[in-house]
Design brief:
Blueprint: E1 5-6, E2 9-10, H1 17-28, H2 31-48, E3 55-59, H3 65-73, E4 78-83, H4 86-105, H5 110-118, E5 130-134, E6 147-153, H6 162-171, E7 173-184, H7 190-196, H8 202-213, H9 218-227, E8 234-239, E9 242-248, H10 254-257
Parallel strand pairs: 3-4, 3-6, 4-5, 6-7
Antiparallel strand pairs: 1-2, 7-9, 8-9
Length: about 260
């Protein structure tokens, strides 16, 4: 058995990596989690940007919930979910496939039913605006300047090659586009942490503290960004228990770019 890291924290040696992933999927990709966490998170992301992105990358997408939600909210945008784990990507594709099956079941017109049924083939995702792919963040299989918006939620601290991953992320970012890296604040003051969690149940507050301890501090983020040559193209913002890192590539106003894909 392996000692593995999921979401930046070491988990039990008693279970294999694939079992860890299945456990994470079972506890994270639920209706309650979607309503209480992922839907508000996507709303927050869209409030943080000043334009409507045409093409979006959810890097470290896990079971695919954020990419699915963005696809629902932005019907004219193309969304990619990328993750190094085949287990995660297989689950993400299965969920989307099941959604299509339900849609087909409610269609009665033969022509439409056949058209929807075609999307259930193995290659259906390549023809749809929501796509999932197994990919390494330090060697992304995308062309230069492809994405208007790139999101990493709780992912950066888990990346094996952070410096080259940042370079790759910047390479596939389009001029005028933005990257948002969301993590917990490791170096939050104890009195501020206690104030922000005072209305939480003790179990949840302790869980948050463990997640904060698994994160990087601001100095570490600053070093990675500097080493990747992005010191002048980023900002780090503390927001309550969260840390938001914004990376931007100077270029044309994104309002002029909307719909170019």
């Amino acid at each position: 058995m392996q000692d593995v890291g999921v979401l930046g924290c070491k988990l039990s040696k008693a279970i294999s990596f694939s079992q860890d992933e299945e456990l994470y999927i079972a506890t994270s990709d639920t209706k309650i989690k979607m309503e209480e966490d992922y839907i508000p998170f996507v709303d927050k992301v869209l409030n943080d940007i000043s334009f409507i992105p045409s093409r979006i990358l959810d890097l470290g997408c896990g079971p695919g919930y954020i990419a699915r939600r963005i696809c629902e909210v932005l019907p004219n945008s193309s969304v990619f979910g990328a993750d190094k784990s085949p287990v995660m990507i297989n689950h993400a594709e299965k969920v989307v496939r099941d959604i299509f099956k339900k849609q087909v079941a409610f269609i009665t017109h033969k022509a439409y039913k056949e058209a929807f049924a075609m999307l259930r083939n193995e290659g259906y995702l390549s023809n749809y605006r929501l796509k999932y792919i197994v990919a390494d963040s330090s060697n992304l299989p995308f062309e230069d300047c492809l994405f208007d918006l790139i999101i990493l939620k709780g992912t950066f601290k888990c990346l094996e090659d952070k410096q080259n991953s940042l370079k790759e992320i910047y390479r596939v970012l389009s001029p005028g586009g933005e990257v948002f890296i969301y993590e917990f604040r490791k170096d939050i003051a104890e009195d501020e942490f206690n104030f922000l969690t005072k209305d939480m149940k003790l179990q949840k507050a302790n869980s948050l503290r463990r997640k904060l301890n698994c994160s990087l501090d601001i100095g570490e983020y600053e070093k990675y960004l500097k080493d990747a040559g992005l010191k002048d193209n980023c900002e780090i913002i503390a927001d309550g228990l969260d840390l938001r890192i914004r990376i931007f590539k100077r270029g044309q106003d994104k309002y002029e770019h909307y719909g170019r894909f």
